[in-house]
Amino acid sequence: MNEARELLSQMNDRSREVFRRVVEGYLASGEPVGSRTLTRTLSEKVSAATIRNVMQDLEYLGLLDSPHVSAGRIPTQQGLRMFVDGLLEVRDLDDQDREKLDATLGRNAGDVSGLLDAVGSALSGVTHGASLVLTPKHEAPLKHIEFVSLAQDRALVVIVFADGHVENRVFTPPPGLTPSAMREAANFTNALAEGRTLTELRKAMQAEISKRRQEIDGLAAALIDAGIAVWDGSGDSSERLIVRGRANLLEEDSAQEELERIRSLFDDLERKRDIAEFLELTDEGEGVRIFIGSENKLFSLSGSSLVVSPYMNADRKIIGAVGVIGPTRLNYGRIVPIVDYTAQLVGRMIADRS
């Protein structure tokens, strides 16, 4: 952000205004913005030739690009980043958008997942993008953990919480796992588990394994790591990610190249890979973050942007995240307050239910 502001401060008023108008025009229409269009909207009266010279300078700086010969300009990913960091004007949340999101509070969903599903649908409907909601992990104290072998390359970890809640996940165990290593892993885990939450257990196990590595069978240690990782997001925790509104990303007149990028995004969403990274994107504190194009670690091949914000429980601890994914020409000024408000709304829902 500091780099963006520094570069903007070095530009004169005319260059800054031309750059801002090109980006705003592109975000509104998705089309390149030409010099003749700008002559009608700039605050000072200058010729189209003068504007073309300014646009060429901005192109040289890597902020604008010309998709076709003799066409207008569009912002590059670097240009969009500079605009978002230095020139973006975030609107107040629209009353109609607020009402649609608030309506989810009235849903009589039986559990938190049902409520978050409704929030995801509302967020997708309001933004006309695909919404992503990462649901919180169950953080009640633990009672018992069991590892069950299903096949040579598949195992099941079953966790029983003190409040009666039971969860299970299928995961890939370490190669060459023996029945004795599985028993040792279960005994070791249960000796530490009772009364601790999953987060507390994870920290305690890491410390204990480091201290007693010589005593613990290597396969047992690997099994513990693989089995518990699915709750930390490092494994296949796909049911924690709710995706709604993927069809909003498809347009009938989309170019073939754009459709291929969207299909790549859909593949990522179907597999729901790297869910841990979705939450890590928000781990620098509360507030909305914007990831443009290849900055987005989750969907770098899709040419999409992600606007994401964490939500917190009553103890102000980050427990999940909400976001909107769409084309890089998202209306960021409108989407940012929507995502921010949705994250606050979810936090209140979680706090009220707990």
From TrEMBL:
GO terms for molecular function: DNA binding. The keyword Iron-sulfur does not apply. The keyword Ribosomal protein does not apply. Keywords: Repressor, Stress response, Transcription, Transcription regulation. One of its GO terms (biological process) is negative regulation of DNA-templated transcription. Coiled coil: none annotated. Pfam families: HrcA. NCBIfam families: hrcA. PANTHER family: HEAT-INDUCIBLE TRANSCRIPTION REPRESSOR HRCA. Negative regulator of class I heat shock genes (grpE-dnaK-dnaJ and groELS operons). Prevents heat-shock induction of these operons. Belongs to the HrcA family. This is Heat-inducible transcription repressor HrcA. It comes from Mameliella alba. The gene is hrcA.
